[in-house]
Every structure is written in C-alpha cells, then in structure tokens.
Amino acid sequence: MRTLRSVVPCVAIAVAAIVAGCVWYWRKDRGADRWKWAAWLAVSFLAVAAGWRFFPRYFFQILPPLALLGARGIFLLPARARAGLVGFALLIPLVRFGPRYALLASDLAAGRAHGWVDVAMDRDSREVAGMARSIAKPPDTLFVWGFRPELYIYTGLPAASRFLDSQPVTGVPADRHLIDSTAVTPELAAANRQELIRSRPALILDGLGPYNPKLSIESYPDLQPWLAGYKPVARTATTIIYQRLNP
Question: Which of 19, 25, 35 lies closest to 73 in space, CA to CA?
C-alpha cells in the first residue's frame, strides 16, 4: 500500500503533463496528420478495452501516441509555459524516487541491509536460489509459486510446466496478490490447478505464502494430494523450498 500511495501522485503528474500537451496540440496544430493521430488513439483504446478489464497496466497500449502527442503539444507552447510544464513534469522522479534515494543512502551510510521491499525481495531470491542449487541435480525442474520470475534465472532450473508462476492457478493477479486473495478468474484457475498437478517439478519455491498466507500453496485443498508428495526442506524469510519425495 505504501508503494501504491507513492505511485498514484506520480502517475497523476505524468498524465496531467501529457494531457495538457495533447490539448494544446489539438488546439494549435491543424496539420493534415490529425486524423492519423486520432486513428492511432482509437485503435489503441480499442486494444485497451478489448478484454473489458481495465487494469492500469493495460493503458500502456495507449501511452505511445499520447506521449508523442503530448511532446508535440509541449513543444508548441509559449516558452515560459513550456518551461513551467517541463518543470512540473520533473516532479515525477523527485516524488517517486527521491525518498528511496534517501533511504538507500542512509542504509549505506549506516552499513545496514537495505529495507526497501524490492531490494529485500531480490536479496531473498538470490539467497533461496543458492539453497535450491545446492539441492537440485540435473535434470531437475522447478515451479515457482508467486510472481518471482527471477528465481528461474538465479537457480538456472527449467520450468516444470507451462505455468511460470501462481497467477494462472490462483486467479489473483500479481499486482494485488501480496495483499489480496480474491480470484478474478476462479473457474479458469481451478482448471489450471488440475493441469498443474499433472506436472512433477523436483522443487517448488513458494515465494507468495509468507507474504499472504491465504494464498500459500498449502491453502488449496485440491492441491493437497499433489503437495503430499513434497516436503519443505529449507526456507528464507519470504520463501519456502519444497522437494519432491520420490525423484
């Protein structure tokens, strides 16, 4: 939630600057290319709306034409207004990253481990990957419960199924699963879990349960018979390693 509160004002600043530029472009530039821009925007918005699910990341589809139009509009502004709007837009890195820079600098000065959640999660991933490498033997495979794609890279182990994380089998998107356990596609997730239990990963790394116990791999009754073939063999602060009992 702290991350969300820091992102929202930054997004608001960025959108305000882009929209201001777009409005000014539409007022001042009467070139023949206006219909092309309008068509690009319309097609991009259709792509955003195609699934009728408006997650914020889906709007990346419409960001390129908006950013280009906004930049053109800002260029057409009078010099003083342009300088003011650019300065306003520069508040984005100051608001979004300034406090983190101070936090990281204070950690370095004090000689302590970084408390920033992203850095802490990556440090945990590297630690648990080292444990997994000491356990695994070729041709062992891996399944990661949670959204921790870096674990495949750090362990060097191949995926055991087409599911690379828990989103398809829980139905809970990664942008909320650390704090929420409400599935958006429960029927599809249940069907995917039936497919998952037909796989035989040598190791399962649960990197979600320690953050959100309601979404731990052990909390799904239909996975219990499958998970009975594994045992927890090691853990870090935020990840549990399960190893298959019968190789």
Answer: 25
Domain boundaries, the chain: 2-98, 117-244
Contact 144, 165 (CB under 8 A): yes
Type of residue at 47? A
Of 137, 201, 140, the C-alpha closest to 169 is 201
**Would you mind telling me the total number of residues written for the chain in this entry?**
247
Contact by Cβ (8 Å): 197, 223: yes
d(CA 91, CA 88): 6
pLDDT at residue 66 in the model: 83
pLDDT of residue 5: 44
Under 8 Å CB-to-CB from 218, ≥6 apart: which residues? Answer: 206, 209, 224, 227
Q: In the chain, which stretches have pLDDT less than 50?
A: 1-8
Pairing of strands 203-206, 230-235: unpaired
Q: pLDDT, tens digit, for every residue of 7-51?
A: 445 556 667 777 777 887 777 777 667 778 888 888 888 888 877
Report in angstroms the alpha-carbon separations of 1 from 119, 129, 175, 177, 208: 17, 27, 11, 12, 17
222 vs 142, 226, 227, CA distance in Å? 20, 8, 9
Q: Is the pTM of this model over 0.70?
A: no
Residues in Cβ contact with 235 at an 8 Å cutoff, skipping those fewer than 6 apart: 128, 210, 241
- CB burial of residue 110 (10 Å; 0-12, 13-18, 19+): exposed
